[in-house]
Amino acid sequence: MRIIGLLLLTGSLTMGLAACGGGDEQSTAKQEKAVETSTEAKAGVEEFTITAKNWNFSSDKEIVVKKGEKVKLNLVNKEGLHTIKNDELGIDLTADKPAEFMADKTGEYVLKCSTVCGATQDHEGMEISLKVVD
Ligand SMILES: [Cu+2]
User: Fold this and answer.
1) Where exactly are the structural domains of the chain?
2) How far apart are CA 110 and CA 126, in angstroms?
3) DSSP class of 67
4) pLDDT of residue 32
5) Which of 65, 66, 113, 121 shows its CA 20 to 30 Å from the CA of 90?
6) Contacts 24+ apart (CB under 8 A), 3-12
7) What's the confidence (pLDDT) of residue 115?
8) How far is the CA of 82 from the centre of ligand 1 (A)?
9) What is the rounded distance in angstroms from the CA atom of residue 32 to the CA atom of residue 114?
10) What is the CA(14)–ligand 1 centre distance, in A?
11) DSSP summary character for residue 123
12) CA of 102 relative to ligand 1 center, distance in Å
């Protein structure tokens, strides 16, 4: 049994070396770095869900993000048909299509309804604030 175990161990070591091109340390380091980077990028996405009703928006949490963060916004229409647009942030959000953008400038942004969804005063009152902080 011990001999078989040793043979298996030797076999997997050889295969392991062959798999990474004869144990090239540089390529191994590169691979590790790539994994690290993708994990960071994923962890940096802040996601919010905005709920729309006639005639207001609310969010599952206050929309405050850190500068440099990637943001994902989802829209759920509970009542009526609403969309959100903000040219400054490059947001074009519909219930079918989440919006993703990079929060690269601090400030307070107003996200407004971009579908005429009722009388002027009702439609124009539909907004929600998004803050980008340092
Ligand atoms: Cu609306």
Assistant:
1) 45-133
2) 10
3) T
4) 55
5) 121
6) none
7) 97
8) 4
9) 44
10) 64
11) H
12) 24
Distance 49 CA to ligand 1 centre (A): 16
Please state, in angstroms and rounded to a whole number, the distance separating the CA atoms of residues 51 and 99.
14
Rounded to the nearest angstrom, the distance between the alpha carbon of 117 and the centre of ligand 1 is 5
User: How does pLDDT run across 35-78, given as a tens digit for each residue?
Assistant: 544 444 456 799 999 999 999 999 999 999 999 999 999 999 99
Neighbours of ion ligand 1 (CB under 5 A): 82, 113, 117, 126
Architecture of the domain delimited by 45-133: Sandwich (2.60)
DSSP sequence for 14-65:
HHHHHHTTTT-HHHHHHHHHHHHHHHHHHHTEEEEEEEEETTEEEESS--EE
What percentage of the chain has pLDDT greater than the value 90? 66
